[in-house]
């Protein structure tokens, strides 16, 4: 018994005619007759009787027809599911992200994705970079956004998302008139930094030391968004990344390039030991497009 034989059998049952079944299936009448004959031989019993030039299903054929219809319904469901998968229209997507992209980038991407993929369940969790890298290395999530790894890890597969940090000042600050800010210009100015171990802080302190400028740490925070709020309230200056600047109080701050260049590079992580799902690839595509529109990236 094969699928083509079942298709022919079902067509004959519904049309009560070999000729009409052949027309429905767009094959020749002898081809349908051969398929029915082969099916009868494999089953070991007759499926149709011929009387006065017409064919009639046997009781056994009617019993088989019920099962054939269930099979076709299952196959129809399977095809519909496959079509949904091909359209990225079904499934789930688990995303882990650090705070900045989760707050200021992922909501608009996720909303756009959901409008075109309403049957895909999307979950977003926010953690620090180290934890996200651990999760992605153990295949816990479909996508991850975190800081670039500092050491090679064969269990991590990622695309680099380079960012150049900029200097943020309170609006109206005297140094806001400068086109570019340097450690020499910022000598002694109160600065809001990330933790002392953070790459941006280490690089910033090194730049001040090499320029012979005084580094005045006024506040230490663990999120760029907090640093931006402190700057907006006149507490000092800070370096910040373009993504967190998306939600900054634009009328309360001024933004200027900083030299030497200090990077805060992020990465888009994928599971390294399994294939990317179609929905993950589609979401990543939308995310890349959104990133391309962020000023400074």
Write the layout of secondary structure elements.
Elements: H1 3-15, H2 18-25, H3 29-43, E1 48-51, E2 54-57, H4 59-86, E3 91-97, H5 99-104, H6 106-116, E4 120-126, H7 129-137, E5 143-147, E6 156-161, E7 166-170, E8 190-193, H8 199-211, E9 216-220, H9 224-232, E10 237-240, H10 242-245, E11 253-257, E12 266-271, H11 278-292
Helix pairs in contact: 1-2, 1-3, 1-4, 2-3, 6-11
Explain this structure to me?
Residues 1-58 form the HTH lysR-type domain. InterPro entries: LysR_HTH_N, LysR_subst-bd, WH-like_DNA-bd_sf, WH_DNA-bd_sf. One of its GO terms (molecular function) is sequence-specific DNA binding. The chain is of the alpha/beta class and 297 residues long. It folds into three domains: 3-86, Orthogonal Bundle (Arc Repressor Mutant, subunit A), CATH 1.10.10; 91-162 and 265-292, D-Maltodextrin-Binding Protein, domain 2, CATH 3.40.190; 166-257, 3-Layer(aba) Sandwich (D-Maltodextrin-Binding Protein, domain 2). The chain is built from eleven helices and twelve strands. The chain has helices at 3-15, 18-25, 29-43, 59-86, 99-104, 106-116, 129-137, 199-211, 224-232, 242-245, 278-292; strands at residues 48-51, 54-57, 91-97, 120-126, 143-147, 156-161, 166-170, 190-193, 216-220, 237-240, 253-257, 266-271. The strands form three sheets. Strands 4-3-5-12-6 form a five-stranded mixed beta sheet, with helices on both faces. Helix 8 links the parallel strand 8 (190-193) and strand 9 (216-220). Helix 1 (3-15) packs across helix 2, helix 2 (18-25) crosses helix 3 and helix 6 (106-116) crosses helix 11. The radius of gyration is 32 Å and the shape is rod-shaped.
């Amino acid at each position: 018994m094969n699928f083509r034989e079942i298709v022919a059998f079902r067509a004959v049952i519904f049309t009560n005619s070999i000729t009409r079944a052949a027309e429905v299936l767009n094959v020749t009448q002898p081809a349908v007759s051969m398929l029915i004959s082969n099916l009868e031989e494999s089953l070991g019993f007759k499926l149709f009787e011929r009387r006065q030039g017409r064919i009639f299903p046997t009781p056994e054929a009617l019993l088989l027809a019920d099962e054939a219809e269930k099979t076709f319904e299952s196959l129809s469901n399977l095809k519909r599911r496959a079509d949904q998968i091909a359209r990225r229209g079904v499934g789930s997507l688990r995303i882990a992200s650090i705070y900045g992209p989760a707050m200021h980038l992922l909501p608009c991407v996720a909303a756009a994705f959901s409008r075109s993929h309403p049957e895909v369940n999307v979950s977003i969790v926010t953690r620090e970079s180290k934890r996200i890298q651990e999760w992605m290395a153990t295949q816990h999530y479909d996508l991850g956004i975190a800081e670039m790894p500092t050491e090679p890890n064969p269990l991590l597969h990622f695309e680099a998302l380079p960012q150049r940090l900029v200097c943020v000042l309170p609006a109206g600050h005297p140094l806001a008139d400068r086109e570019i800010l340097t450690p020499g210009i910022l000598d002694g100015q109160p600065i809001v930094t990330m933790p002392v171990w953070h790459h941006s802080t280490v690089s910033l302190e090194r730049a001040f030391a090499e320029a012979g400028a005084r580094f005045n740490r006024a506040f230490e925070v663990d999120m760029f968004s907090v640093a931006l709020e402190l700057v907006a309230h006149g507490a000092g200056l800070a370096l910040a990344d373009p993504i967190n600047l998306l939600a900054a109080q634009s009328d309360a701050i001024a933004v200027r390039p900083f030299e030497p260049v200090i990077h805060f590079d992020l990465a888009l992580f994928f599971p390294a030991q399994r294939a990317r799902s179609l929905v993950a690839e589609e979401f990543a595509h939308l995310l890349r497009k959104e990133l391309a529109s962020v000023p400074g990236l």
